[in-house]
Write a structure and sequence with these properties.
Helices cover about 25% and strands about 25% of the residues. By secondary structure, it is an alpha+beta fold. The strands form two sheets. Strands 1, 2, 3, 4, 6 and 7 form a six-stranded antiparallel sheet that branches. Strands 5-8-9-10 form a four-stranded antiparallel sheet. The longest helix has about 50 residues.
Length: about 230
């Protein structure tokens, strides 16, 4: 008498199938999570770069839109008159961190006023505009472990030369002249864009050129030095 055979799977085969399927599902989910993180990092990186580029464009295409009834925010003994009749002009943008992690920034118009001998600089704190980095990434200067950062983008009112200055500390309105005319804080600056909990293939940074035309003043490239270690 022929014995009837069962063509089904054994318990061991079923368990092995479930184990392999689970491993594949976990790997797929992990890969998807990494892909999402990398895209979020890229979005945040280029959003921050775009913010700085927009600020620089405001310097290139500056408009003196100070209301007629608003006094010039530059401390000077020069006589101030109405907009269009005054030497008080907008010549740039001042940007500083607004929190202790480099996620929020405030930007202000930078004013300049000539007293007949030299140019003085200042700003009004009630004219600030706020920006927040996407996906809660952090930023800092590559030369500083802290998040404090100040960026000054200006067109020299005397020569028309475009300049960018950076510092690892923030400046008050009364200190704008010193920041704008200092021989320090010049040259290329690297801003780290990072989040320690994210895994990305290659860290990238935003680079600011101290003396640059509109095309290469704000660029994105692979991180170097301390930024690459984040």
């Amino acid at each position: 008498m022929r014995r009837k055979t069962d063509n089904g799977f054994t318990i061991i085969e079923v368990l092995m199938f479930l184990a392999v399927s689970s491993a594949l599902a976990v790997a797929l989910l992990a890969g998807t999570g990494l892909a999402i993180q990398r895209q979020q990092y890229k979005d945040a990186l280029y959003s921050f770069s775009g913010f700085l580029s927009d600020q620089y464009s405001s310097v290139i295409n500056v408009m003196n839109d100070r209301p007629n009834d608003r006094p010039c925010p530059v401390a000077s003994d020069a006589i101030d008159t109405n907009r269009g009749q005054s030497d008080c002009v907008i010549v740039g943008r001042y940007i500083e961190t607004a929190d202790d992690e480099g996620r929020q920034f405030t930007s202000y118009p930078l004013y300049a006023l000539s007293d007949g001998i030299a140019w003085q600089y200042g700003l009004s704190l009630d004219e600030g505009n706020r920006y927040e980095a996407s996906w809660k990434v952090k930023t800092r200067l590559s030369t500083s472990p802290g998040a404090n950062m100040a960026i000054l983008m200006l067109r020299d009112p005397e020569t028309g030369r475009l300049m960018i200055r950076t510092s690892d500390r923030k400046y008050s309105p009364e200190e704008m002249t010193g920041f704008a005319t200092s021989v320090d804080n010049q040259g290329q600056a690297e801003i780290c864009v990072y989040d320690s909990n994210w895994f990305t293939q290659t860290r990238q940074s935003v680079f600011l050129s101290g003396k640059a035309g509109s095309a290469d003043a704000v660029t994105v490239a692979n991180a170097t030095g301390a930024c690459g270690d984040e």
